[in-house]
Structures are given as C-alpha cells and as structure tokens.
Amino acid sequence: MKYVVYDGILRLTETFYIRSSNRAFRYGDGLFETIHYHKGKLLFWKDHYERLTKGMAAFSFSRMSFPTSVELEAQIIDLLVKNRVFNDGRVRLSIFRRGDGFYKPNNLSASWLIEVEPLETRGFPWHEEGLHIGLYKKLQKHYTPLSPYKTISSNASILASIFAKEARHHDALMLNGENLFIESTSSNLFWIKDRVIFTPAVSSGCVDGVMRKQIIEIAKEMNRSVVETKGATQKELLESEEIFLTNVISGIKWVLAIQNKRFYTRLTKTIHENLAKKIIS
Q: Are the C-beta atoms of 126 and 268 separated by less than 8 Å?
C-alpha cells in the first residue's frame, strides 16, 4: 500500500519509519485492532472502538488528544480511499505509547498507526473445505486484565502458529492456566454438542472477540443455548459434534478434524447464513 496514517497524518509508506526507541518495539507496550472493511463501511466499528478504549484504559494510556470514534473512523476511511481499496479490506490499527523511558514511561499518551490492505474475498463466504487443527500445549495463556485485548506482544500465538505450520495444520488451539483450550492463534473457539453451543468465557483468558460477540447474539436470536465455560478439555472437544473458529476477517471457519476425529457443520452453517444476513442488513 502506498500510504499509512501516523498520528492522524497521511504518510508515504516507503518513507515512513519508526525510531528504534519506540516503546512498541522495545517493550511491546501497546495493543491493536483488526477491522474488516466491507461495502464502504467498517464492520462492527462501534464494538471495535469500545474494545480499543477499554484496552487503552487497561494499559493506563492517556486518551488526551486521541481521536474520537467519528474522527478515527474518518481517518481510516480516507486511508482506504487513498490506497484505492474499494472492495473488502483489512485494517490494522496499532496503538503504542509515545515518548521514551525504560519500563517506566515518561509519557502516557498514545500514538496510532493505521495500515490497510485489500482482501481477496468479499464479506464472509462459506468455505467448503474445513480446517485440520492441532492442539498446542507448550505455552499457556493466563487470564490477566490485559488478556481480553489484542496486545502487540503475542508470543503464545506466534509459537502456536509455528507449531501448526510445522505439523501441517491450518491452525492450533491454545491452553489457559487451567489446561483448558480457550482459543486458536487468531480466532475465538466454539463447539457444539446436543444442539448446545459452548464457548470459553472472556474470564478464561481468551480475547474478547468482536466476532465472538456477534455470534453469541446471532445464536440467541436463533433461540439456541449458549454456554460460556472455563474452556474445553481435549476430551470435550473430541466428543463434540461441531467446532468452529471466528474472527472479523474470515467470519466463521469450520473445523473438519482434530487428530482422527471428524466434525459436522449442520448448525454451524446455519449460524454462518445468519451472519451473512446480518452484514447485509
């Protein structure tokens, strides 16, 4: 892409740089949002901005001079137009602390960087081929006041992604401190048994996903029971009938197999159809 936006100013990508003293680089002092642009609008923008501002509070960022929801949305849309992203696009909004300092920052205010790129798909298409996913058990993700947010420091997801690639899996599920599976490398986790939908609660240590919220709302509108749990044991996953993963870029990705167990898509596909209707409306 030709342009990025840094602290509200349009910059050429090829000449833009961040100093080596930047706190995101040195300490992972920041968080980010990934947003789906579709048909001229940012999907679920209100939920993204709300999670972002809650995350900034959890990180003790000052919101002085940080743009309002309306201002930030306008900056993102303008950048998409400048980069000629007219169909679906992925937006990454990174927030990191300004100024220098060691572990103790000398400034609590936030800088922001907006990057965009086009997506090949439109909306949330149904994928005919399901995922083969693995179970990553080496590094746990514990619940903290920061775990509901997408932090710049994402070591567990990185190592789980490497594990999945080396094992030739499409993705991998990760454990929390109670040895329960709570999410994949980039998605929230849902499983279905006896027509009941289960998903780890945010208190389990998983990300408070924007798409997760939409799926729970859709399921309730369908009069389906949704049970939020502490996470799933391996036995619970292998005994379930359907498993799917969710994020705002892909929507729903259904799981075909874990180890030698195969899964169905009956209710999952219906939920997907209702998601597609929701973004149209």
A: no
Token pair, residue 150, equals 């997408």
Domain count, the chain: 2
Q: Are 48 and 149 in a shared domain?
A: no
Same structural domain, 113 and 220: no
Q: What is the CATH classification number for the domain harbouring 45? A: 3.30.470.10
Query: For the chain, how big is the Rg over CA atoms in Å?
Result: 19
Per-residue pLDDT band for 12 (boundaries 50, 70, 90) equals: very high
Write the single-letter amino acid at 186.
S
pLDDT digits (tens, 9 = 90+) for 108-150: 999 999 999 999 999 999 999 999 999 999 999 999 999 999 9
What tokens appear for 107 in the block?
């400034």
Written as one string, the DSSP assignment of 232-243 is: B-HHHHHH-SEE
Pairwise CA distance, residues 182 & 176, whole Å: 7
Cα(277)–Cα(281) distance, rounded to whole angstroms? Answer: 6
